[in-house]
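Kindly draft a sequence, keeping tokens residue-aligned:
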Amino acid sequence: MLTKQEVMNALSTVMDPDLGQDLVTLGMIEDLQVEGEKVSFSVVLTTPACPLKRKIENDCRTAVLSMTGAKEVEINMTARVRGQQKVDLGNNCFKHVIAVSSGKGGVGKSTVSVALASALAADGAKVGLLDADIYGPNVPRMLGIDELPPMQEGQKPDPANINGMKVLSIGFLVSEGQPLIWRGPMLHNAIQQFLTDFNWGELDYLIIDMPPGTGDVQLSVAQTLPIGGAVIVTTPQQVAVDDASRAISMFHKLDVPVLGIVENMAFLPMPDGEKLFLFGEAGGENLARRAGVLLLGRIPIDPGLGKGGDIGSPIFSEDKAEATRDALRDMARKTAAAMSTVAHAARTG
């Protein structure tokens, strides 16, 4: 007669490729039921955006069918985001805080931030997007929103809500085109108020779109809450790569793990299938290798992406080339996997 222990023994041979341990040891198997020759259980992933979800499911099914007497296996793939440590700020709770940064402006950092947040939300995570680029808040235009929801009397104001994610930007609070000439304490207070005075609730991921460079805002965010990991955006161009390298050094000095590099505007796809490297080739890839971090994605040049950002068109809408949509989704899932790996290492190390 088939037993639960036999099934667990079989599942203990299935490894999580990112975390490097078996699913049983990681506590990822739940709700195991055995009825005759039928087995059912849940696999609880560390992120709904796991890029290896289908592989883990197939490995589980193969292990149980080949190592036990089971004839039928029913698997429920689900997820529970586990943070290294929950960041509690009043009624707000962030399981993972991911900073998206760049060494210089104009490399598509906000595009990557919006795509990362949107893709994680589409995969089922609870996501917030904080536009901390105080001097150049582009997120409202890119998402087609320009104001916060009405405030409820006696309650904290809510961030905007679009496509299943919560969004907050200084752009909601100042007149269009008005410059902000803030330094030090004013910046720190603004960042602190964004995080504590608004009703974010409990989030799996808070994505922070940082301003370019290595200035006061980065320091203020790092002082206000622990950043779980940083994503560095660059183009292949050498000047952008040089500045991205400085951003990596800054996060190392702040003891923030760098999850990886996103190489934006990596190439222009040609109708004949060739790639035209307008800004140089493999600059982000080479930087990732030198820095010893992951290359999270190479995003092609897509006119639909830039046009959509100007008019608030959804980042994954149909006017974007399929290769671009796939590259952005893959980037987001690799980022989520890298964040899970870093958090797991912190919990167990």
User: Anything to note?
Assistant: Residues 322-348 form the longest helix (27 residues). The chain is about 35% helix and 25% strand.
